Task: structure prediction
Amino acid sequence: MVENILVVGSLGQVGQELVESLKADFGADRVIASDVRKPENFEGKFEVLDVMDKEALLSVVKKHGITQIYNLAALLSATAEKNPVLGWNLTIDGQFNVLNLAKEGHINKIFWPSSIAVFGPTTPRFDTPQKTIIEPNTVYGIGKLAGEMWNQYYHQKYGVDVRGVRYPGLIGWKSMPGGGTTDYAVDIFYSALRGEKYNCFLSETTALPMMHMEDAIRATRTIMEKPAEQVKLRTSYNISAMSFTPEEIAAEIKKHIPTFEIEYHPDFRQQIANSWPASINDAEARDHWGWKEKYDLKGLVSNMIENLKDRVK
Ligand code: AKB
Result:
């Protein structure tokens, strides 16, 4: 079957890399990137689209004969705290529109990016299992959890093929994050390579689950490609690669850039981080569809510095 793929929210940190990865395999003609604004120099097919606009979404789907949607549109954790209504509407109204397209038979597969933000302060913090206490206390986490439950509902009730993973903090050199609590782990490389002291907005001992973007894209592509029966959970899967504190990543960076300095001035994002797991157990993803990461902290830091050193001025 010929697949035509729509990536919603394609200008975000995951979207930019995902579009390139999909184009490389399916061909540029089969991948339609979309977002609420058009970038200046975009190569390939692009639609200006607000996923909350049901009619506009349907018309893009019909125009391009879309069969699959990756719905990446969201306000990340820190931004959503400042704009709760938009954070909720974008996550939930947007996903409802996408789920209903599948229910009505317009598309046949959906990817949903969930997050470690579905967990909350009452969740066991270390080696957090797939199924545990889930009581998020952030706008972003509440939206992601509600989305997970609606996905499972649409799968069970209407047979919608929706698949998702709970992303940890994502770190890559091709695209920048925006508005997340884990963004420090990307920003830190830019300060280090510019010879600047990094002012970290989390405390030195705040451990969070993290992953190289290359691994995150591979997880995303893998879960979408597996036969439906292997995707046994239709909420979203825990996926894990590494867990570190700001102090630990700074020490690893110092092995490459000995003059690097960091100081810690926690802001409102500290509370968000405190409510999230320090490390994740992803036994189900490994068992059901063969998830395995490539990068640990050492590999991630070398790879980031290697790729950014000639780009960062
Ligand atoms: C954020 O920090 O909000 C995101 C996430 C963990 O989902 N990177």
Observations:
- The pocket of 2-amino-3-ketobutyric acid is lined by residues 76-77, 115-117, 140, 167, 169, 180-182 (CB under 6 Å).
- The domain at 5-168+212-238 is CATH 3.40.50.720 (Rossmann fold).
- The mean pLDDT is 97.
- The radius of gyration is 19 Å.
